[in-house]
Design a protein that fits this description.
This protein is of the alpha+beta class. The protein has a single domain, classed as Gcn5-related N-acetyltransferase (GNAT) (Aminopeptidase, 3-Layer(aba) Sandwich), CATH 3.40.630. It has four helices and five strands, in the order E-H-H-E-E-E-H-E-H. A five-stranded mixed beta sheet has the order 1-2-3-4-5, sandwiched between helices. The longest helix is centred in the C-terminal third of the chain and has 14 residues, at about 90-100. The protein is globular, with a radius of gyration of 15 Å. The N and C termini lie far apart (about 45 Å). The structure holds coenzyme A (COA). Coenzyme A binds near residues 110, 121 and 122. Keywords: Acyltransferase, Transferase.
């Protein structure tokens, strides 16, 4: 039995646990420094990092959320493998959606790496759809 997930904004004390979660979930890649990502996003007016905690386990889930004044974005959606299939991924995404909705943002988007095929089914299951857009990028 997994218990009830509590969701709140990340605090400094969560930094180690959330980085460990992201590594365990395969979300840390050489071109993104997790500490820099946390510093840029956590506790800002237009962005935050939400963590899901269980009383007996601490941080077991996360979602980074933010908006650019037009669209909302989710990143680092993660659930500890030991606590998957309990609905926590859905709850974290819904919390991110609510965060955006509360700020007047009408559409949420996220990027799925081409190699991450398994996660597409998860997003489709919770009501998301592939966007008929091409994403362009440039490193600054
Ligand atoms: C994707 C992830 C967050 C899902 O977390 P989770 O807590 O297991 O998901 P949930 O239990 O909330 O699942 C919600 C629904 O999606 C389904 N689902 C979850 N993962 C799935 C998968 N890989 N394939 C198909 N369906 C999936 C569940 O069965 C559930 O369906 P239901 O409505 O019939 O109950 C988790 O697997 C994860 O952390 N993956 C690694 C990190 C990652 O890739 N993040 C996304 C970056 S874009």
């Amino acid at each position: 039995m997994d218990g009830t997930l509590s969701i709140r904004a990340l605090t400094d004390a969560d930094r180690g646990s959330v980085k460990a979660l992201w590594i365990t979930c395969g979300l840390v890649v050489p071109y993104n420094d997790p500490d820099a990502d946390i510093d840029l996003a956590a506790g800002r007016e237009n962005s935050d990092i939400l963590v899901g905690t269980l009383a007996d386990h601490g941080v077991v889930a996360s979602a980074m959320v933010g908006h650019d004044g037009h669209r909302g974005w989710l990143y680092y959606v993660a659930v500890d493998p030991a606590h998957r299939d309990a609905g926590f991924g859905r709850v974290m995404v819904r919390a991110g959606e609510d965060w955006l909705r509360a700020r007047g943002i009408r559409k949420a988007q996220l990027l799925v790496r081409k190699t991450n095929t398994a996660v597409r089914a998860f997003y489709e299951r919770i009501g998301w759809a592939e966007s008929p857009r091409t994403v362009m990028e440039r490193w600054l």
